[in-house]
Amino acid sequence: MAAAIAAKRAGLGDVVVVERDRELGGILMQCIHNGFGLHYFKEDLTGPEYATRFIEDASGAGVRFKLDTMVLDMKPGWMRTINPEGVVDLEPKAIALAMGCRERTRDSLGIPGTRPAGIFTAGTAQRFIDIDGYLPGGKVLILGSGDVGLIMARRFKLEGADVRGVVEQMPYPGGLTRNVVQCLEDFNIPLLLGYTLTDIAGKDRIEAVKVAKVNERLRPNYSTEREIECDTLLLSVGLIPENELSEAAGVELDPQTHGPIVNEYMQTSVPSIFACGNVLHVNDLVDNVTTESERAGRSAARWVRRELPKRFEKRVRAGDNVFQVVPQRIVSGEDVRISLRTRRPMEDVEVTVGNVAFKRRFVRPAELITLKLSAEQIEEIGDEVIVDIRERMGMKKK
Hints:
Strand content: 25-35%
Strand order of the largest sheet: 10-17-11-12-13
CATH topology of the largest domain: FAD/NAD(P)-binding domain
Structural class: alpha/beta
Largest sheet: 5 strands, parallel
Number of helices: 8
Number of strands: 27
Number of domains: 3
CATH superfamily of the largest domain: FAD/NAD(P)-binding domain
Radius of gyration: 22 Å
């Protein structure tokens, strides 16, 4: 919706949002906890409150909506959709991809054991409680310390469930620090770092799981194995950008982000297709999604009017201690906003983009790092822009 509003305000006459759900708002509608909008609106909002503001703004701006509509296939200038009224073909001059992510499931992890009831992704359990009003279990264990898993640990606790703990194979939590504090520490929920699941027990319903410490290669040490009784297992083990349609349209994907390769205009390898939000790369704050999506919407409008400049093409590449970076290309002489993630927690570091250095007190894999470079700084960097994170650099800080 942010992309649609930005495109409409940039002067596009007909802007349509195609939504496969029956209502607008996406995943925000089941995120009834607060913490949204602190950066964008300077207010503390719940997910539905945040989404409602954009629903109202989009409606007021004249954006059209096609709800309960699935996109079956697409390519530049053409999109095939289906809804209860039948199959409808659209001919958009530009497309902004904003399909978000899906959750990793047990099948993608290969956890051994039986296949009983009571195993859910954290997002599914969130929908059961916050939308449908069902409490799916009484003794709950969470595998993975992503933000949704942490939030659901607190949610189950508030609903009276016995939350046995959160198990994380890495030596550090995978969610935001504020969620670790507010959702686990404030509710005395144990966090087992450096552990993984080794077995699931139960016939009709899950009865217990086994966990064990992992070594430096993240392999379980079975001599440390112990059993935890539970009737519900939540999986918060990562998100996968929903990019089947992107691939169908011929969009080039990044093996690290699993989303499209884009330039600073959020423009993919297919010039008329743009990408934003979690379908591009996994974000930790909805405020970042919004500003990124607005940039995609404005850029789509500029593309339709043939106003997108391309002066050069510089490749942006992840270097030392950098897991991923967006955008992967820089093509203009305008200011650029770069987002990246570190591979591991570090303190007192310099983040260098080519010959430009930024000082950071600490960096964590769960928290997106955002840097802004001026047109002059971009001009001075070579054709290959390498982004590094190092603990000590003899370079002047910016």
